[in-house]
Design a protein that fits this description.
15 helices, six-stranded mixed β-sheet, about 20% strand, Rossmann fold, six-stranded parallel β-sheet, FAD/NAD(P)-binding domain, single chain
């Protein structure tokens, strides 16, 4: 019998478990650990609450979770409740699928001012992550600045722009819904160091900006390259740039008709955040793109800002005793292998790139690597105790493990507490989750 521990219950973790099942069938036992009492990681806490169709992929993970040889082990913090070295006593292979839950820091003066948040914090707040549920951002100002030109930046902009009615059917948590719909924000500036041809925004997400009831996207025609240059772009990016061109074309027609202006500010690099205790403005340097890289021109200007959200990337959280690549912000690895018997997958392996679906081939490829290491004898002796050994350790330490069956009780309670039209009202405190599983 093979015993595998997967640390992290998001997409990468469950795709890896699915791959192990397909390869070894009944000859494998898989424990999927998570520090929270609830599964699905990025699906629950990262995907925008108004993108319920994307969250539906969790039904696939549930099929894996409900099989006899896969177990969810929630409410166990690796590195605190139990160490990697201890898990290595019980499992033949350990896979780190912890994602990249920390924000990449905006390294400019003033980044520690009040009302400046990274996207992991801000998204975690409106998605009900227990770590960020008490964030309480001040949304009482008029201008928000969102730094970054990827889909996460678009998520933040869209959430800041919606009316209460537009959140119908979403699972945004009530405390965020109340704060957002009471906000008087009327201007949202999206800052990007480079130009339209270098964005990471996908067509679907850009197109959603045109559907907003009270907000309109705006692009300066002067920021757009000659339309003939779009021909060299890959098809998805070409469609995204076409959206930007449409935003520029309709700007005058809809100016003033909607309460909120969403302004794309290209060739703009933040060099300082200004304010007395809390952010009041962003100092920006105009840039130019040379051989694909943004270079400062020396020209600067200021944008008033009562709220700043940085959407510039994520980093994996280090675990004591596991080699870590500080420059890349992920575990040090060779195609997923960290050390003999210790592996990583998903964002923990490659950094925050790709879509949710990218994690499936990543997980299947990693299981093939583990299988090869088992065949070659790299993983040492077989016959480890697996979950039996861990369960004894957990009992000795009094750990309150949450199983997938417990999660289903938590989920049922969230469904019952939902406001009208919403699929759930998430518990935002671990104590609430633990209480719900015992009901």
């Amino acid at each position: 019998m093979r015993h595998i521990a997967i640390i992290g219950s998001g997409p990468a973790g469950y795709y890896t478990a699915e791959a192990a099942q397909k390869l070894w069938g009944d000859d494998v036992r898989i424990d999927i650990f998570d520090r929270l009492p609830v599964p699905y990681g990025l699906i629950r806490f990262g995907v925008a609450p108004d993108h319920q169709s994307i969250k539906g992929v969790s039904r696939r993970y549930e099929k894996t979770a409900l099989t006899d040889n896969v177990r969810f082990v929630g409410n166990v913090a690796i590195g605190e409740d139990v160490t990697i070295a201890e898990l290595q006593q019980f499992y033949d292979a350990i896979v780190l699928a912890t994602g990249a839950p920390r924000d990449r820091e905006l390294a400019v003066p003033g980044n520690d001012l009040g009302n400046v948040y990274g996207s992991a914090e801000f998204v975690g707040w409106y998605n009900g992550h227990p770590q960020f549920a008490d964030l309480a951002p001040d949304l009482s100002g008029r201008t928000a600045v969102v730094i970054g030109m990827g889909n996460v930046a678009l998520d933040v902009v869209r959430i800041l722009s919606k009316t209460r009615d537009e959140f119908a059917g979403s699972d945004i948590v009530n405390h965020a819904l109340d704060a957002l719909t009471a906000s008087p924000i009327e201007r949202i500036v999206i800052l990007g160091r480079r130009g339209p041809h270098q964005i990471s925004m996908t067509p679907k997400e850009l197109g959603e900006l045109m559907e907003l009831e009270q907000a309109s996207p705006q692009v300066e025609t002067a920021d757009l390259p000659d339309e003939a240059e779009d021909a060299i772009l890959e098809p998805g990016l070409r469609k995204s740039v076409a959206h930007l061109r449409s935003f520029a074309a309709i700007r005058r027609a809809i100016h003033g008709e909607k309460r909120i202006a969403i302004e794309f500010d290209f060739f703009a690099s933040p060099v300082a955040l200004l304010g007395d205790g809390r952010v009041e403005a962003v100092e920006v340097e105009r840039t130019e793109v040379v051989k694909g890289r943004a270079q400062g021109t020396g020209e600067t200007y200021r944008i008033p800002a009562s709220l700043v959200v940085t959407c510039i990337g994520y980093r994996t959280a280090p675990i004591e005793g596991v080699p870590f690549d500080e420059r890349m912000g992920r575990f040090a690895n060779d195609e997923g292998r960290i050390l003999d018997g210790l592996y990583c997958v998903g964002w923990a392996r490659r950094g925050p790139t790709g879509t949710i679906g990218t994690n499936r081939p990543d997980g299947f490829g990693l299981v093939e690597l583990i299988a090869a290491d088992m065949e070659s004898g790299k993983l040492g002796r077989q016959g480890k105790r697996g979950r039996e050994g861990f369960d004894k350790l957990a009992a000795d330490r009094g750990l309150d493990i949450v199983t997938f069956q417990d999660w289903k009780k938590i989920e049922e309670a969230e469904h019952s507490a939902a406001r009208e039209g919403s699929p759930r009202e998430k518990f935002i405190a671990i104590e609430q989750m633990i209480a719900a599983k015992g009901s």
